[in-house]
Write a structure and sequence with these properties.
Order of helices and strands of chain B: HHEEHHHHHHHHHHHHHHHHHHHEEHHHHH
Structural class of chain A: mainly alpha
Number of strands of chain A: 2
Number of helices of chain B: 26
Number of helices of chain A: 20
Shape of chain A: globular
Strand order of the largest sheet of chain B: 1-2
Radius of gyration of chain A: 22 Å
Oligomer: heterodimer
Order of helices and strands of chain A: HHEEHHHHHHHHHHHHHHHHHH
Helix content of chain A: over 70%
Shape of chain B: elongated
Distance between the termini of chain B: 141 Å
Low-confidence stretches of chain B: none
């Protein structure tokens, strides 16, 4: 296909989203149909692009020299774009049902759909500048979504989100300037673009810049100590928390870090330096930290948010190993975690939507009344723990083998941290599951007599994700092969 | 043959689904039938596989990441058959046991899924497959323990799950290291790979980690904490399986590791021997003190697992001459599985009839029930190692292996002599607590005459299927013991390949004097200990002797060590650390807000007056106060401060001004002033 389509798939959701509130919809259903078909249409386009791959890049604007807004499709972008475009239609479907209880629906869907385009922009960016622009834009379009309820805490949370994200992007900006100045080109090339001749002897300075921009992008990937916006942003409606704060936004952070590490600075350049060790330390800490905080948390969505923090650092751990195998582990966890976390968040949302219960201690005996939702919640809990046969196990296995293969003391600690975190995950997830299935003997079932499973619009996405979790767990060979090809640059 | 492998794994799964669906539709008879049928079918399939499929393999590539690998050798077929047999019997028994329970469908579902997983463990050809099915088995058997949903059951189930998850993770860590060090996890390739491996330290670390994982499931000290709690609260058929076969899945893993990675390794053997001794003696001690039928049986299981681990340890210590230890290990595994099957099902009959387990309450239950009496006796004598019963054969082999070790090992002789005595004493304790159970349930009369009459009136207390299950399981026991050369030895022969026995296997004459000696010493100790039980562990109340619970309640590793450590100490330390780091950035932002990025001050607004009146008034007020202080004048009751007075004056002034400025006369006045100035100006011009 023509490379122009790359730009089009970014544009369509943005424009389509923006016009939503401008049109007078006679009935809600028309608006919903319009949005759903728009999103599905765009996803189909993306998948067509992934199959009939345009070889060249599409340059939208060329400012000067190597500063341009341009789009292209490479291996890494394929995975992220494929993931996002697969999940978005289901999430939109879920959001229709969820938003029946919320206000300002049209503004919500305007930004929700526009975010789709912006996220694709990050995935398909050809160079650092383009990615940076879309990265900043992502903060701005998701801000109204966090603020959606306009309660005091929502406004506080969105302010925090803004400060953290913009602050982080400023650090990333420093990295961008250095890459553009000292790189042979600012396009993404596996193995890095830094020009050895221009570098001279200032390696430590460059490592310092790398660390800075790593933390800059790390804000969105919720690396400790820059994570506290994520649990607070949980005040947003669940479709936002689930898709954006478990998949699109946070994965954009991880994705940007992959680009930065493997495609700008180059893993060869960074491997074995103090920068790698420092980052590994921080990441390992975040892994354990996220789980421990999740264990302490009593609010369902906030618990899942802390779990996300820990799991994002799994991805970053794979990246920070700076080996192709590490990238395979990181990619597999990026994709699999998206499925696991979105389904557990959607289950949490379904519970909140049906019962208005937000705290874990209120969930006693719920599984008897919402069997389908809790069956899937249990499945995703086991997947998050890394129970064998489900997709979480595959990614943890890949990560741990990559760590052991790369050697070094910190890598062994990494495996230990992964397993410790699996244990903590078991504690904080199974706690909910056990409570829901086996309430105390004196539990009064009449208090939840009128609770029931939600309708098909909520259940269908959940079933699809559940199939994904089991399917990836049993037959992971093709996807792992794809990841390996991407990591070795042969795709 | 590949088809048979798959069938053995998949048939229970489909049976599980069928039983569950039948239960959902309310068809109880169909549900019981399909479960029992699945059990029988599984046993037949396994028989078929054992007869025709010896040595065959099945490899399903790519599934679950690394692919699944199954194989069948002598050891695996023995254990596959034992497992299938036990499941068949318990499923036959379950129909009656669960007839009046709720959520039977769920129970059947998880029992059959666990069957599939357990078969997967025993047929697995690489440790990855073992791990996979091992984890599934742990999680599905959780539901057995929680089945009754009482508070005790849920707590025990929580402990079980915690140990299973921690064990599973440790095991996985061990497997990672092993895979890295050896490059393979296929059990058959482990031995040469380990021999070629240069990083022995890494192997030991990996071995210990897997030992924690498998040992936790086997119930080895000090991770046995779940066992005495979980087994008694589960439904009886489930207890039989938990105790008889799930623990053996752990032992299977320990064997796979120690017979391949550490074959003939004396250090490893000694380590296992130590663990085995603790487990064996600790379990026996708990059992002697227990006054609960199922808890005693559970503690006994722990103790017997200790015997088995000692066997594995002796295999390492004896080196190439380890045939006796290897044969004893396998035989004791099989014997213990079958014995516990019978005993727990009999305990199940007691629960089914009177829903109680305390020895004082169930006393005399079996006085007029000959079938139960004989079956229980068969199991009790078997486990106590009485000659001509099956337990005697395996215990003799284990004992002989220790004796052989004393004869051959130089430096270890003292330790092994001590081990031998602990072994004999533990054997004696086995006899003592089994006698205690037998006497209480089948010989003595209940202190409550009415209860005893009610017990004696029960005649139709078992359905034929359940009676068959119990009698069938019990009948196997003496068959293995009376003619050991025909039965037990054959089984032992099958297991040798798995354990890499290479040394000469000489036939053991089990019933000659030197071999009988050990057994007889043990029996003598047992009789003495039982006398001790009757004197010290029973008390008289109102003229009736009852069994007393002398074990201090607080003395429990779980409440003393694990729970405080895991639930209070570690979370506290981690919590403080996390708290600090969590608020670090917020503090930084706050600090910046308070210092560099401070908001511009909102101009200070006075409530009244202006800066001038405020200053002047305050000064005057101050002066007045100083004056009063100096002159010691009292403060009048009502006094208007100068500050306020000045402000009022100012207010008045501004107001008056405003009025004046807005009036017509003020305008005329100004006009007049203007005229005057013009006039003066004209006069000035005129003069000059």
């Amino acid at each position: 296909m023509n490379a122009f389509w790359l730009f089009l798939v970014v544009l369509i959701p943005c424009v389509g989203g923006v016009v939503t509130p401008l049109i007078r919809w006679k009935k809600r259903i028309y608006c919903m149909l319009y949005l759903e078909s728009l999103v599905i249409f765009n996803s189909i386009l993306v998948w067509l692009l992934l199959v009939f791959r345009p070889q060249e890049a599409f340059t939208l604007v060329n400012f000067t020299g190597n500063l341009a807004i341009a789009f292209q499709l490479d291996g890494l972008g394929t995975i992220f774009a494929g993931l996002v475009s697969f999940l978005w239609p289901f999430a939109t479907l879920y959001a229709f049902e969820y938003m029946t209880k919320e206000k300002h629906e049209r503004t919500f869907f305007m930004f929700y759909t526009a975010t789709y385009g912006v996220t694709l922009g990050i995935a398909l960016a050809d160079n650092f500048l383009t990615m940076y622009c879309f990265y900043e834009l992502l903060t701005l379009v998701t801000l109204p979504l966090v603020m959606h309820t306009l309660t005091r805490e929502a406004i506080l949370a969105s302010r925090k989100y803004l400060y953290y994200s913009i602050g982080g992007a400023a650090f990333a900006f420093i990295g961008m300037i250095f890459v553009i100045t000292y790189g042979e080109t600012s396009e993404f090339i596996l193995g890095g673009v830094l020009d050895a001749a221009k570098l001279g002897g200032g390696k430590n300075l460059f490592l310092f810049i790398y660390v800075l921009s790593f933390f800059g992008f790390g804000v969105k990937a919720a690396i400790c100590p820059l994570n506290s916006w994520l649990p607070e942003a949980g005040v947003a409606p669940t479709p936002v928390t689930a898709l954006l704060h478990a998949v699109a936004v946070v994965k954009s952070g991880a994705f940007a870090i992959m680009r930065l590490t493997f495609y700008c600075f180059g893993a060869e350049f960074l491997r074995g330096t103090w920068a790698q060790h420092l980052l590994l330390l921080v990441i390992l800490f975040t892994i354990v930290y996220g789980c421990s905080m999740a264990l302490r948390e009593t609010h369902l969505k906030r618990r899942l948010a802390f779990s996300t923090i820990s799991n994002l650092s799994y991805i970053l751990f794979g990246v920070a190993l700076m080996t192709p195998l590490g990238l395979v582990g990181a990619l597999s966890h990026m994709v699999f975690h998206a499925f696991m976390k979105i389904s557990s968040f959607f289950c949490a949302g379904a519970i909140m939507h049906q019962t208005d219960r937000h705290y874990i201690h209120q969930l006693d005996g719920m599984a008897r009344k919402m069997p389908k939702v809790f069956a899937i919640f249990t499945l995703s809990s086991f997947a998050l723990m890394g129970a064998p046969g489900l997709c979480g196990f595959i990614s943890k296995w890949n990560l741990a083998s990559a760590a052991i293969e790369s050697g070094g003391l910190l890598s062994y600690f990494g495996v230990a941290a992964l397993l410790l975190s699996a244990l903590l995950t078991a504690m904080y997830m199974l706690n909910i599951v056990i409570r829901a299935y086996f309430p105390k003997t004196d539990f009064d079932f009449s208090s939840i007599a009128d609770v029931k499973d939600p309708n098909w619009m909520m259940l269908l996405p959940l079933f699809v994700f559940a199939v994904g979790i089991v399917g990836f767990g049993l037959g992971s060979a093709p996807v792992t092969a794809l990841f390996t090809a991407v990591a070795q640059g042969s795709f | 043959m590949e088809g048979l492998f798959l069938a053995v794994i998949l048939v229970p799964l489909s049976g599980a689904l069928a039983a569950y669906l039948a239960d959902r539709k309310g068809r109880a008879a169909l549900r019981d039938l399909s479960a029992a049928f699945t059990g029988i079918a599984e046993f037949l399939l396994m028989c078929g596989l054992a007869f025709y499929g010896m040595g065959s393999e099945l490899y399903i590539p790519e599934i679950c990441g690394m692919g699944l690998r199954f194989t069948l050798d002598g050891f695996r077929s023995v254990y596959g058959l034992t497992a299938a047999f036990m499941w068949m019997m318990t499923l036959l028994f379950s129909a009656e046991y669960l007839a009046h329970e709720t959520r039977t469908g769920r129970y059947y579902f998880f029992q059959l899924v666990t069957l599939s997983a357990t078969m997967g463990v025993f047929l697995s050809a690489d440790l990855f497959t073992t791990f996979l099915f091992f984890e599934v088995m742990s999680f599905t058997s959780y539901v057995w323990v929680a089945q009754e949903e009482t508070e005790g059951a849920l707590k025990a189930a929580g402990t079980y799950l915690a140990v299973a998850v921690i064990g599973g993770m440790t095991l996985l860590m061990g497997l990672f290291l092993l895979y890295h060090a050896l490059g393979t996890l296929v059990i058959a390739e482990l031995l040469p790979a380990a021999a070629a491996c240069t990083e022995k330290g890494m192997l030991y670390i990996a071995g210990c980690l897997t030992l924690v994982g498998f040992g936790a499931k086997a119930g080895a000290f000090p991770l046995h904490i779940w066992l005495p709690k979980a087994h008694p609260v589960a439904p009886a058929p489930a207890s039989a399986l938990l105790s008889g076969i799930l623990t053996k899945a752990g032992v299977f893993g320990i064997l796979a590791v120690s017979c391949n990675l550490f074959l003939h390794d004396a250090v490893w053997g000694l380590f296992l021997l130590g663990i085995g001794l603790c487990t064996m003696f600790g379990g026996a001690l708990l059992a002697v003190f227990s006054v609960d039928l199922k808890r005693t049986l559970a503690c006994s299981s722990m103790s017997q697992i200790g015997f088995i681990i000692i066997g594995i340890g002796m295999q390492g210590i004896l080196g190439e001459e380890n045939a006796l230890a290897a044969r004893g290990t396998l035989l004791h595994m099989v014997n213990h599985s079958l014995i516990k099957l019978t005993l727990f099902m009999i305990a199940g009959v007691v629960v089914m009839q009177i829903h109680k387990l305390n020895l004082n309450e169930i006393r005399g239950f079996g006085r007029k029930k000959p079938l139960l009496k004989i079956c229980f006796l068969s199991g009790a004598l078997g486990i106590s190692g009485i000659p001509f019963m099956n337990g005697y054969v395996s215990k003799t082999l284990l004992h002989e292996s220790i004796v052989e070790g004393i004869a051959s090992a130089g430096a270890l002789t003292g330790f092994l002599k001590m081990s031998e005595w602990i072994f004999l004493i533990s054997g004696g304790m086995t006899l003592a607590y089994m006698t205690k159970l037998y006497v209480a349930v089948f010989v003595e009369e209940n202190q409550d005459k009415k209860a005893q009459e009610a017990f004696d009136r029960q005649t139709h207390y078992l359905r034929p299927a359940s009676a068959f299950a119990i009698a069938g399981s019990a009948a196997v026991l003496p068959a293995l013991g009376v003619l050991p050369h025909l039965t037990s030895d054959r089984i032992a022969d099958l297991g040798q390949g798995f354990m890499h026995v290479e040394g000469p296997v000489h036939s053991v004459s089990y019933f000659n004097l030197s071999n009988l000696k050990g057994g007889l010493i043990s029996i003598a100790i047992g009789i003495a200990l039982y006398a001790g039980i009757r004197t010290f562990l029973m008390k008289k109340e109102n003229g009736i002797t009852i069994y007393k619970d002398s074990w201090p309640k607080w003395w429990d590793l779980e409440t003393l060590l694990y729970r405080p450590l895991l639930l209070s100490v570690l979370p506290f330390i981690a919590g403080v650390l996390c708290r600090i780091l969590d608020s670090l950035v917020d503090w930084m932002i706050l600090a910046l807000r308070k210092t560099i990025y401070r908001d511009r001050k909102i101009p200070h607004e006075l409530a009244e007056g202006s800066e001038f009146t405020h200053l002047l008034g305050a000064t005057l007020d101050l002066l007045r106060r100083i004056k009063r202080k100096i002159l010691r004048q009292p403060q009048p009751e009502r006094e208007v401060s100068y500050e306020h007075r000045l402000a009022l004056w100012r207010e008045k002034f501004i107001e008056t001004n405003a009025i004046i400025q807005r009036s017509l006369s003020f305008g005329l006045l100004l006009f007049y002033v203007g005229l005057v100035f013009t006039l003066i100006y004209l006069l000035y011009l005129g003069r000059s």
